[in-house]
């Protein structure tokens, strides 16, 4: 045990919160000074008169001085009460400044939205949602990080994004999610590829044995394909492994080989005839859910909540 001078125990300082009256009591004192009546002060503050009397007595006891002189004509501050009221006004002004500052911080937080999105969602769905969000919240500054689904999940878990969008089969531990849409994967080729003219649907075993142009491991597209072909020991090592949907499409359009891509990503190329969709057998379940994700137990608020609502429109 530590000790002070002459072997006496050191005094433990009393916390400031125990020495300074609470803000409600100081507000009451200033209201009594302004209105000249404890009853009117109580009504203004939305408390009963007995509660106001008790709060005032507690304040006087804490400070050790009489603050208010009561009479049939009303209540007036004592000399000591008048001095305390000057100090109390300064404390309340500081508290109000604190509150305004805290609200400003919340305002800056609410006007900034950090989004992480998988490549498919980021390229083909998110732009429309962000345009709609701008109409609803024109002052919101949005930052967007694009990556594969695994990277998006890591960013949300690390607190680097307020809301994420993924397209894999599952959601990592530590994240909550909701399904915002469905997507279908297609096997596509350039029109000159032999598969572009086939009439017999492509079975899972044949697809598993064929080198493909694929997205990298960790992408939602790759996760769905790997799971679908796992019973057939596939897919075999890829012909090309590329880190963006745009790169995969470009290689496929050039005739390098077949690829597996989101229907959302190849709609334009299919419409113009630059790519052809290969018919698939029923044993190829290439569908997936698109999900919004956020830290577990922390439901999106502010702009993140608004963006999430727009994905369901």
Automatic annotation (TrEMBL):
It comes from Actinacidiphila acidipaludis. Gene3D superfamilies: Periplasmic binding protein-like II, Winged helix-like DNA-binding domain superfamily/Winged helix DNA-binding domain. Pfam families: HTH_1, LysR_substrate. Residues 21-78 form the HTH lysR-type domain. InterPro entries: LysR_HTH_N (IPR000847), LysR_subst-bd (IPR005119), WH-like_DNA-bd_sf (IPR036388), WH_DNA-bd_sf (IPR036390). It comes from the Bacteria. PROSITE patterns: HTH_LYSR. This is LysR family transcriptional regulator. Belongs to the LysR transcriptional regulatory family. Keywords: DNA-binding, Transcription, Transcription regulation.
